[in-house]
Specification:
Distance between the termini: 43 Å
CATH architecture: Orthogonal Bundle
Number of domains: 1
Oligomer: single chain
Radius of gyration: 21 Å
CATH class: Mainly Alpha
Bound molecules: protoporphyrin IX containing FE
CATH superfamily: Cytochrome P450
Number of helices: 15
Length: 367
């Protein structure tokens, strides 16, 4: 497990480390290695995240081509209107004692954004939203999650098939066009798996980013005031929040492609050795950040971190996610500037996961 931020960057960016278990973890594809179920689920699918070299470039290119600055600009007014609708829904709840900011605010926004980003047609919306929400229901049984996964995949198959015939101006249309233009076009199943990756990578992460930034600002009134007065941008506050508590603490798994030594640290890696880069620990690296546990939107050493990853796999949705979180948190604090946390941040429930990092519920009194 790598905790040091500089070593984490060198390994993530270097050519000797792969995310492809099938190719670079001896015994994995042969089934001769016993692998924990959670790890197997993360590394067992073939998509942009779990690939290496030319294969990775080919799988990532259509996704990156569909998440351009232009797409973020097209989505910005859509995000604004989704956020206004969710805020209007909160107005009706305001009189109650406590409301949970995760269920009633942080969660519906990314779900709705991803559905609209993909271009799910109106007639499939209720079915798709219910199935997509089921994927992230942490209280659901494994069978229920598998059912939701099956329902989402079946809908994605239909969407890919109709986008092949009439690609529209949405992410699926962009993916189909970019995939067709590539030297070795992706199959329908590969396209569907890329869409599934976008849904999984782009939803829960953003839910946590919204919730955690709200908790940081609501529990630090001095920092909150710097942002609302315009002295510090919401983007800077988000970068600091992501450094201190990134939505993804670590993503399994990477593997040494061959035996090598990192010359700066002297650290040695055997061929096929699994490596877990700990993004959350890297954000608290005392070699890089002074007083790393402090939330400080004016950090002299900067808040740049590995929260969106680093190197060839760096998050292609970072610009969209940033825009989404900034709009959601800014508009919430404009509408409810005096909201109070009903529970101290250290007592908020967190996922029992070494991957997902955030708050499961955030009870507040709206004001
Ligand atoms: C605040 C929200 C988000 C965070 C913190 C986040 C973080 C990350 C991280 C840490 C990685 C892995 C990078 C690595 O291994 O070096 C990643 C990959 C990825 N993310 Fe995000 N992400 C967010 C939002 C999104 C959104 C909104 C989308 C799409 C709509 C998205 C799509 C992806 C995809 C497709 C990958 C795989 C890229 C590859 O392996 O080449 N993410 N993200």
């Amino acid at each position: 497990m790598v905790l040091d931020s500089a070593l984490a960057e060198r390994l993530s960016a270097g050519p000797h480390v792969s995310r492809d278990a099938a190719r670079h973890w001896p015994g994995f594809s042969e089934g001769t290695r016993s692998v924990d179920g959670v790890i197997a689920a993360w590394i067992g699918t073939h998509n942009a995240l779990n690939s290496y070299g030319d294969d990775h470039r080919q799988l990532r290119a259509p996704i990156a081509a569909a998440l351009t600055r232009r797409r973020v600009e097209v989505m910005a007014p859509v995000i604004e209107s989704i956020v206004q609708d969710v805020l209007d829904g909160l107005d009706g709840l305001g009189a109650r004692e406590d409301i949970d900011l995760v269920q009633s605010y942080a969660l519906p926004i990314p779900h709705e954004v991803i559905t609209r980003l993909l271009g799910v047609p109106a007639q499939h919306l209720p079915q798709f939203s219910a199935a997509a929400a089921g994927l992230f229901d942490t209280a659901a049984s494994a069978e229920a999650i598998a059912r939701s996964m099956g329902a989402v995949l079946a809908l994605l198959d239909q969407l890919v098939a109709s986008a092949r015939e009439h690609p529209e101006d949405n992410l699926i249309g962009d993916l189909v066009r970019a995939a067709d233009a590539s030297e070795s076009p992706l199959s329908d199943a590969e396209l569907r798996d890329q869409l599934m990756l976008v849904i999984i990578a782009g939803t829960e992460t953003t839910v946590h980013a919204i919730g955690t930034l709200l908790v940081h600002l609501l529990s630090h009134p001095d920092q909150h005031a710097l942002v609302t007065s315009g002295q510090i941008s919401m983007e800077a506050a988000l970068a600091e929040s992501l450094r201190l508590k990134p939505p993804i603490a670590a993503i399994p798994l990477r593997f040494a492609v061959r035996r090598f030594k990192d010359s700066r640290s002297g650290e040695q890696f055997g061929e096929g050795e699994p490596i877990l880069i700990h993004l959350a620990a890297a954000g608290l690296d005392p070699e890089r950040y002074t007083d790393p546990e402090r939330f400080d939107v004016q950090r002299a050493d900067g808040s740049r971190s590995l929260a969106f990853g680093y190197g060839p796999h760096v998050c292609p949705g970072a610009a969209l996610a940033t825009r989404e979180v900034v709009i959601a948190v800014t508009r919430f604090l404009e509408r409810y500037p005096d909201t109070r946390l009903a529970v101290a941040p250290e007592h908020l429930p967190e996922p029992s996961s070494f991957i997902s990092n955030g708050y499961l519920s955030i009870p507040v009194q709206l004001a």
